[in-house]
Amino acid sequence: MSLPKVYHRFSLLSLHSPKTLFSSPTLAVKYLPSPPLFRRHSRRFVAGKQFKAETTMASSRFNHLVPVNAVAAEDGGNGTGSNGAADATASVAYDDDMESASVTGYRLPPHEIRDIVDAPPLPALSFSPLRDKILFLKRRSLPPLSDLARPEEKLAGLRIDGKCNTRSRMSFYTGIAIHQLMEDGSLGPEKEIQDLPKGAKINFVTWSNNGQHLAFSVRLDEDDGSSSKLRVWVANVDTGKARPLFESPDIYVNAVFDNFVWVNDSTLLVSTIPLSRGDPPRKPLVPSGPKIQSNEQKNVIQARTYQDLLKDECDEDLFEYYATTQLVLASLDGEMKPFGPPAIYTSMDPSPDQTYIMITSTHRPFSFVVPCGRFPKKVEVWTSNGEFVRELCDLPLAEDIPIAFNSVRKGMRSINWRADKPSTLYWVETQDGGDAKVEVSPRDIIYTQSAAPHENEQPKILHKLDLRYGGISWCDDTLALVYESWYKTRKVRTWVISPESEDVNPRILFDRSSEDVYSDPGSPMSRRTLAGTYVIAKVKKEDDGNTYVLLNGSGATPEGNIPFLDLFDINTGSKERIWQSDKEKYFETVVALMSDQKEGELSINKLKILTSKESKTENTQYYLLSWPEKKTCQITNFPHPYPQLKSLQKEMIRYQRKDGVQLTATLYLPPGYDPSRDGPLPCLVWSYPGEFKSKEAASQVRGSPNEFAGIGSTSPLLWLARGFAVLSGPTIPIIGEGDEEANDRYIEQLVASAEAAVEEVIRRGVADPNKIAVGGHSYGAFMTANLLAHAPHLFCCGIARSGAYNRTLTPFGFQNEERTLWEATNTYVEMSPFMSANKIKKPILLVHGEEDNNPGTLTMQSDRFFNALKGHGALCRLVILPYESHGYGARESIMHVLWETDRWLQKHCVYSSDVKADACKDNAEGTVDSQSKAVAAAGGVQELADLDEDKFHSIRFHG
Questions:
Q1: What residue intervals traverse the membrane (predicted)?
Q2: Alpha helices in 738-818 (DSSP H)
Q3: What is the DSSP letter of 194?
Q4: Handedness of CA 333, 335, 340, 342 (dihedral sign)
């Protein structure tokens, strides 16, 4: 059984084994006790008392409406998957007492944390096309490690489960329930989808366009613990009865790329595993020759550190084997026929009128230096009954896309159907060769053409852009909005065009900075057409003949986000605010239009929208809001996901960096805590830096003080249940104004931002200056290591998860740095905490997934950084999580990370600095009793074992 690999070294000499000191169960229980926590009866914080939840948590927070046809990877940070508490196969030790860290195996954090993480999730929701029914898609909690341990093939930037012929680590639904949405906004009784096999794992749930049927895939667990291949099922929404789409049990879905799509209300196009396919190719024991890559043509090929790439000819054959698909047309009445030849089809997109299907595929030659998204790409148009029409393009291998932001692939790209036309295509072609460093006007041209053009019919130029194309919102022949942007300047523009009127000149509607959130006018709301596409919704008022669109905005202000809905006249620019969030107590947002079942303009008096509503202490609920009375009907009533923290305290705070930049953060405090009465707390600062082009933009407030405090499975907010103050997301702006690059002053600005944040929580009296820890994930881990190296006076310890620490290992750019190592050598070196490992004297906990597939954050980054720290005697610990990727998914892994983090915070934050200083002084005088008194005076009755044993023995025997 694989267990976490733990490497541990203390900088001070330890002469006694921890097992010697902690062999007594009594001592083990008292080792590293809980931090000071609130005692409900006395309304005071008392040291050493465990916080016990008074009620069992019912569910985790339902964050938002989930796209039901999306495939969630279980290596994500939120860890949606199966509860694993009862059926986990890895050995797990209960560690509420925080005994010695030398014990091997997976560990469990204290119940205060465990109860929150283990709560079952609420279902995902999906509305029918006619907005008259809601699906409740039931989900499981954290999956067991055995799910992640299943074999997977790492090919061309993908991870493939060969047994299922899907992407590996797919999350799934455990059941589907249907509720009728009543006229008054209430939900009708639950109707379960029937006749599903026991233990069915459900994916890719999609509605037919008329809302009468559902299509989804089903797989089952097999005897060896793996899952079977996927089969397509269909269900009648009215009766709830479900059945397999194919009568033959030998037809399976190939879900490496696209899976299936409704062609019309009674027919699906399914990506299947070819029936003639044999066993996968085997790698020969003796290779046919050396692995050779050549650049004898002297091409300039720069690429970021992509992972899971093809390595040899055997990998090429395996990728082709698993990705090759036979498309099949299948009707609900049982008819089926092959569609085209077998190929590596990556997407299937029917035209709005269901006459044509755009098919995208990839083919050889493959690449060993870039993932499959850059492989040769062919796009074709077929009729919906399987007749080839024409080839749109066959793009070559794209290994040479420059690393500069806004660089793109040469040739046709972003090929799509116009949402407002039956079967008209549009696409974009670059005029700069795809290289953002080339100055040219125009830079992009948008073309449009019918699916089956007449002979000699040429593509029509729709619009020319000087920045990089960013998408189109279609409405009708008279209106479409075109977006363009440029990263270097942060400029974004919105153009108004009239697609079918050549005599109407395009004009700029909005021209602003993407960083200036205060000036964001919002985005146009879309309505669903009868064809199932989405177009800009036009709204009319009864008292005038003007036509308006609805702009849905986040409403960023210096007081926080106040979402809004504006009635906007595109011709005059005038606007009327018809809805706005309650800014005093609640945070409300507009989710979707619910009155879009009919064609034509929407009447303002018949407008109906779906909104969400939450507060600091009330989790998200969903409402129907109807005009003209603006009557609201609550349609969900989800229970609070963690009632033990229901009365937590949340405040959005503002403070200033020494260079004048205004900073913000969200300060969370435990329930019932009063700083004037209870004194300062240990504090956890958790953040992630961001880059800006101006001080003004960096100073703007983002987020809302009234948003519900959502707590994920690895969230720093879990430590509110352990009596910590948590400073979440303090802004760490790295600013490069004008021609200056932000990262050239990265360390200076990083430290200044951290100093300002720490000074603020100390000024407020909520944080003990000697007990402030810092942590982060990915780029936040990089930040953490740099702060411990360059601002050791601020923090007592750090937690760094899945980070990159040596930028010379990512030489062709990283994060938002687009210069190469050879263009900005000093920046790469000075930013790398690896180069400052000799300066890190504060305890640092490193955590990394053994199978991290994120570009730049190879597991080797933590391995080498740990060895550099160890080589300089730093107090450090490295935890490598088997089978985990960039985020952590398995219950055993997540619980162990939480145990490691809690142990680190208890040992090096709660009982650090002032406690240890007093104790060490007493020990130097040879007075063990004085040491006990010092610890007791600090707020907890401890045994001798509670001290940092290395420091204690170093002083006792060498002092």
A1: none
A2: 746-763, 779-790
A3: B
A4: positive
**Going edge to edge, which strands form the sheet with 412-417?**
412-417, 424-430, 444-450, 460-465
Q: Give φ, ψ of 181 to 5 degrees.
A: -90, 110
What tokens does 32 get?
């590293």
Q: What are the φ and ψ backbone dihedral angles of 597, each rounded to 5 degrees?
A: -75, -20
Which is the catalytic residue, given 699, 704, 778, 836? 778
Pick the catalytic residue: 118, 852, 902, 946? Answer: 852
Q: Are 427 and 452 in contact (CB under 8 A)?
A: no
Q: How many residues does the chain have?
A: 959
One DSSP character per residue, 707-748 reads S-----TT-GGGGGGGT-EEEE----EEE--TT--GGGGHHH
The mean per-residue pLDDT over the stretch 94-115 comes to 76
What sign for the dihedral angle of Cα 749, 751, 757, 760? negative
Q: Hunting for tokens 């913000």 — which residue is that?
A: 664
- Rounded to 5 degrees, what are φ and ψ at 892? -60, -45
Clarify whether 407 is annotated catalytic: no
Q: pLDDT digit string (tens) for 710-731?
A: 999 999 999 999 999 999 999 9
Pairing of strands 491-497, 507-513: antiparallel
In which band, very low, low, confident or very high, does the pLDDT at 941 lie, cut at 50, 70 and 90? very low
Contacts of 341 (CB under 8 A, 6+ apart): none
- Specify the 3-state DSSP secondary structure of 873: coil
Residue 366: closest CA among 394, 398, 342, 392: 398
Rounded CA separation 400/191 (Å): 53
Query: Nearest CA to 876 among 788, 782, 766?
Result: 788
Question: 872: helix, coil or strand?
Answer: coil
User: What is the spatial distance between Cα 907 and Cα 717, in angstroms, rounded to a whole number?
Assistant: 19
For residue 54, which phi and psi values (nearest 5 degrees)? -80, -20
Look at residue 597 in the predicted model and tell me its pLDDT: 78
What pLDDT, in 10s, does the model give residues 308-364? 999 999 999 999 999 999 999 999 999 999 999 999 999 999 999 999 999 999 999
Q: Residues 6 or more apart from 582 whose CB is under 8 A from it?
A: 588
Q: What is the pLDDT confidence band of residue 778, given thresholds at 50, 70 and 90?
A: very high
Choose among 511, 581, 499, 560: nearest CA to 535.
499
Edge-to-edge order in the sheet of strand 153-155: 153-155, 158-161, 166-167
The answer to whether residue 485 is catalytic is no
Task: Report helix, strand or coil for 933.
Answer: helix
Q: What pLDDT digit, counting tens, does each position of 625-681 carry?
A: 999 999 999 999 999 999 999 999 999 999 999 999 999 999 999 999 999 999 999
Q: Active site includes 420?
A: no
> 75-79, 131-135, 739-743: which range is least confident on average?
75-79
Q: Which residue has the tokens 């008054």?
A: 184
Q: Answer positive or negative: Cα dihedral of 555, 716, 745, 436.
A: negative
Q: Which residue from 328, 355, 330 is spatially nearest to 340, judged by alpha carbons?
A: 328
State how far the Cα of 420 lies from the Cα of 506, in Å rounded to an integer: 19
State how far the Cα of 745 lies from the Cα of 160, in Å rounded to an integer: 41
HEC letters along 512-548: EECCCHHHCCCEECEEECCCCCEEECEEECCCCCCEE
Rg of the chain over all Cα atoms, to the nearest angstrom = 30
Look over the chain and give the mean of its residue pLDDT values, rounded to a whole number.
86
Catalytic residue, from 886, 896, 908, 953: name it: 886
Q: Name the nearest CA neighbour of 906 among 215, 148, 326, 112.
A: 112
Cβ-contact 480, 499 below 8 angstroms: yes
CA distances from 50 to 34, 112, 940 (A): 6, 8, 12
Confirm if 661 and 648 have CB atoms less than 8 A apart.
no
Q: What pLDDT does residue 101 have?
A: 62
Q: Distances from the Cα of 533 to the Cαs of 38, 383, 418, 475, in angstroms?
A: 54, 19, 9, 11
Note whether 955 and 920 are within 8 A (CB). yes
Residue 102: other Cβ atoms inside 10 A: 11
